[in-house]
Amino acid sequence: MTITRRLALGAAAGTLALPNVVRAQAETFRIGALNPITGAGSPYGTGMQRMIQAAVEAINSAGGVNGRRIEVFAEDTQTSPQAAVLAAKKLIEVNRVRAILGTWSSGVSLAVIPLTNEADILLMHTSGAPALSTPPANAKNFGYRYQATNDRFGRAFAEIAVREGFRRPATMAFNNASGIGNTDGFRRAWAAKGNQNGEHVVYEPNQPSYRAELLRVLSTRPDVIVMGSFLPDTTIILREWFQTGTPVKWIIPAWAANPQLVQALGPAVTNGIIAVDSVSNEGAEAFTAYDAAYRRAMNQPGASNVYAAMTWDMANTLALAIEQSKSFETGVINAAIRQVANPPGEAVSSFAAGKAAIAAGRKINYEGASSVLDFDEFGDVTPDFGVFFIENGQFNRRYVVKI
Amino acid sequence: MEAYLVAIAIIGAIYVLLTLGLTLQYGLTGLVNFGHVGFFAIGAYASAIVSMQGVPLVASFAFAALLAALAAWPIGLVALRLRDDYFAVVTLGFGETVRLAITSEKWLTNGVQGIPGIPRTFAGLGVGLPGALATLAAITLVCVAAALALRRITRSPFGRVIEAIRDNEEALKALGKDPARFKIQVLALGAALAGIAGAFYAHYITYLSPDQFIPLVTFYVWMAMIMGGVGRVSGAVVGALLLMLFLEGTRFLRDIAPDAISGVAMASLRLGAVGLALILFTLFRPQGLVGDYTRR
Amino acid sequence: MFGALLVAGIVHGLIIGLAALAVTLVFGIARFPNAAAGDTMTAGAYAGLLAHQASGSLALAGGAAVAASGAVSLLGYLLVFRPLARRPVASLLVAAIGVAFVIRAVLGLIFGHQQQVFQVPLAWPIEFMGLRIPPMDITLATVAACALAAAFGVLHLTSIGRQMRAVADDPDLARVSGIRPLRVMIALWLLAGAAAGIAGLMLGVKTVVSPEMGWEGLLTAFAAAILGGIGSPAGAVLAGLLLGIAQEVSTPYVGFTYKIALAFVVMLAVLLVRPRGLFGRMEGVR
Question: Where does the Leucine-binding protein domain lie (chain A) (predicted)?
């Protein structure tokens, strides 16, 4: 019994001693990579963290920011607000980071942003909740959102529905903030165009059957069903729909309607589905560099993880803003972020190119891997949306929607 | 560094409160409560919602405790008529139903969008170290008070009755005591502790959503109680601290060997470790680390 | 629409019924609610998935699911539940939760958390008396019927099955009549595991396979076992069917979120009003 206690105390002392070693190192600019390594975000988290590290590696080999190297401290949010608060406290207090990058779910970002505000540091995240744009959460305007809000996705869905000539859309949403955000955004935009909204069903995760939900929607005879959904539930719903033999079209966000969905259901079921994604800037040079880095780190194509492209851009915009501001003060850096990310200016796609242009005294506009990366007054990105039609198992991009 | 330790201590103290509640219910009285997270959630949401209507925190904490205790009342009535195993299943269902109700009743709880911007305890001292220290002091005070109260209870006539309920309910009935009243009181008291823990949680994390109240939280508390020692007040404290060491320790494991364990594997390993702890302690050390099994 | 929901409810109910059968057998004979039953299902689903990927045959997948879940179930008994047999029921319950977590952790480590699916051909529905029935539902219902027939065959037609029912009825009487408990318990855990395996396979074919899938359905299985009367295999299956149909058919009225809570409400009502369930204990088996 006493042995166990002593062991426990020893282990505690050991863990506490660690950060002191870290502290003794040379002067660097410290940032925290706070990602969903475990929990619901785990399919993306590791890639997100690796891409912060990879981007920082490139930044450091280009000479660092204002002559300092960037140092990354990595933590896991466990996709849980409670664990994320402890992790953020550790990053801020123990590692003394000057910015936190890459929180993923809205719950985590909402719990962490009071801490970053209090510590006077930036928070760059990929969450969808509207509350993150405005006070109290974004009281100091230190929060930046690299992912299009769910509301914007919904508005894009409405544009597409109009363009495709649909008249009777119904909506189905997974019961979480993101799912409902998508369909609410759609319904608002659809009504604003003077149209009538159809049946709306919110369903629970992890159900053995969605037939009651599906039949309720199908019984209103919609011509298209707009989804706010994720991969597993979309798989089950589409499978059950196909077996009802009722013809209908689908508009689905691309994180659910992806190659895995086609692989799970086959080309016959998925034929004609419209998948919508914020345009991850595939043609751009930044995407090529990111894609190469992602393949090196994760052995998968970069397009398979849109959030990793966002964290790659986070590190680059932050570094460029530091370079632009010639300062390590959060307030000054913050003022420089829109300067380096938004037009007008010389389009640059890497930190090295941007650094050279800034040194030459030119105004730059960073074009990212995840989008062209322009921020509005709330710190939200305003990307365009690609409209993909699934045909014979292939994703064919027909057009791009701007909102 | 200090603020990080204080943060761990606050979360740890929240688990101490939860574990004390369960110790009263299971450790002392033998009520197998698998729905502890439900009372925790009720306390968290109750205090968050009324405090955001401008009610002072002292009152909102009291309201949290009261509402959680009231929720335990019908559960207690059910408990009177059920054997341990049935009661366990019913409370498991209760915890899940609370979570579903929070998810569904958007008008009250904002559903899955959650409640952001819940006022902090000691907000006047700011978000920094002074405020956190004051919070820690307050929750420690509550823990000490709860622990002392439990100690007192175990040595009181009330304590002897509830331990008799655990050990031999029939004999107690034969002595003319009515176990029903005691069971309900014990459940309500334990639930009130969980409710206060929930209120501290809500005002510390400042953001609530239904997915924070999954059954795993209940089993974290069970793990703490079983590791520390069933039926011992000191066991509850030791167990909750061990739990925090386990939850936060895995964080530093990644600092030491970042590539040894992939992130996805870590989630499974953490779950597996909880499972193994539950099995091994039940099999080989049912009295826990500081428990006293001879009395059982 | 009612007819279509009824069909969906029957298939859903058969899955619940099989899971409830696994729960009620253990509950009736080993005398505790086995919280690891859900994760035993998951193990069966993964084993079935592997066999299906290798062979493309649903029958072989069924065999693999039965074998794997049976093995997991028996291992749980020999390593954990047997040494705890004389402990209070709460100890068994806590240990069962532990076993459930360990199974899920192992499956998560081996297979990861990405969803996996059975690549089964999907077809348009068959029209039958104005009802549109998906062919998949017919296949699944057939699988369940065969599994149930086999389970009841074992219970009622074999000597070990009669011994199991005797132990369920009165363990002390069974002991003095010379029934060897270890043999009966091994058979029991194998049978319960097999039923869970088939339930997991069906759930996997119908939905997607992930480490969490079995745990999510556990509460419903408990509810069905209690509704049917603990220790009554036929009761568990009938109650499963009832709950499955009730969940599907009631959703237009109670909404899509509370349909999960329906199982809990039913369970509570049964326990308070008629604790021995709809069908009571098995009787008259000597």
Answer: 29-340
How far out from the chain centre does Cα C118 lie?
A: 20
Shortest CB distance from B2 goes to which of A39, A75, A93?
A: A93
Out of B85, B272, B276, closest to residue C89 by CB:
B85
Task: Give residue A24's pLDDT band: very low, low, confident or very high (50, 70, 90).
Answer: very low
Note the pLDDT of residue B233: 87
Identify the pLDDT of residue B127. 65
Between CA B195 and CA A160 the distance in angstroms is: 48
Q: How far apart are CA C199 and CA C37, in angstroms?
A: 10
The answer to whether the CB atoms of A46 and B116 lie below 8 A apart is no
Regions in chain C scoring below 70 on pLDDT? 252, 254, 280-286
Of the residues C42, C201, C208, C264, the best mutation for testing chain A's interface (the one with the most A CB atoms within 10 Å of its CB) is: C208
Instruction: State both tokens at A230.
Output: 């994720």
What's the count of helices (H) and strands (E) in chain B, helices before strands? 12, 0
Instruction: Name all contacts of C182-187 with Cβ < 8 Å and 24+ positions apart.
Output: C184/C29, C184/C160, C185/C29, C185/C30, C185/C77, C185/C82, C186/C74, C186/C77, C187/C160, C187/C161, C187/C163
- The predicted complex's ipTM stands at 0.89
Hey, what are A184's tokens? 């609410």
- Given a contact cutoff of 8 angstroms between Cβ atoms, the answer to whether C240 and C10 are in contact is no
Question: Which helix or strand (DSSP H or E) is residue A143 part of?
Answer: strand A143-145
- Residues with Cβ < 8 Å from A23, sequence gap 6 or more? A96
- Other Cβ atoms within 10 Å of C286 Cβ, number: 11
Question: CA-CA distance, C187 to C195, in Å (whole number)?
Answer: 12
Q: What contacts C270, CB < 8 A, 6 or more positions away?
A: C226, C227, C277, C278
User: Which whole-number Å values give the CA distances from B140 to B8, B12, B146, B151, B226, in the listed order?
Assistant: 13, 10, 10, 16, 22
Residue A328 burial (C-beta neighbours within 10 Å; 0-12, 13-18, 19+): middle
| For chain B, the helix, strand and coil percentages under 3-state DSSP, each to the nearest 5 | 80, 0, 20
- Cβ atoms of A202 and A173 within 8 Å: the answer is yes
CB C20 within 8 A of CB C237: yes
The strand pairing partners of A390, in sequence order, are: A395
- Residue A17 has a pLDDT of 44
Token code pair at residue A207: 């159900």
Query: Is the confidence at residue A20, as pLDDT, over 60?
Result: no
CA distance B38 to B15: 14
The Cα B12–Cα A390 span in angstroms is 50
Task: Parse chain C into domains and list their residue ranges.
Answer: 2-118+134-219
Q: Which of B39, B22, B35, B25 is nearest to B201 (CA)?
A: B39
The residue of chain B nearest to residue A74, with distances taken between CA atoms, is B255
Which residues on B lie below 8 Å from C80 (Cβ)? 279, 283
- Average pLDDT for A210-218: 89
Spell out, as residue ranges, where chain B has pLDDT lower than 70. 126-127, 253-264, 291-296
Model confidence pLDDT, tens digit, residues C216-267: 888 889 999 989 988 889 999 999 999 999 888 877 676 777 777 788 888 8
Query: Of A84, A212, A150, nearest to B112 (Cα)?
Result: A150
pLDDT at B256: 66
What is the domain partition of chain B in residue ranges? 2-214
Between CA C205 and CA C196 the distance in angstroms is 14
pLDDT computed for residue A104 by the predictor: 93
**Which residues between 224 and 253 in chain B have a beta carbon less than 8 angstroms from any beta carbon of chain A?**
242, 245, 247-249, 251-252
Q: What pLDDT was estimated at residue B65?
A: 97
d(CA C4, CA C137): 11
The whole-number pLDDT of residue A277 equals 85
How many Cα atoms within 13 Å fall on the side-chain side of residue B196? Answer: 25
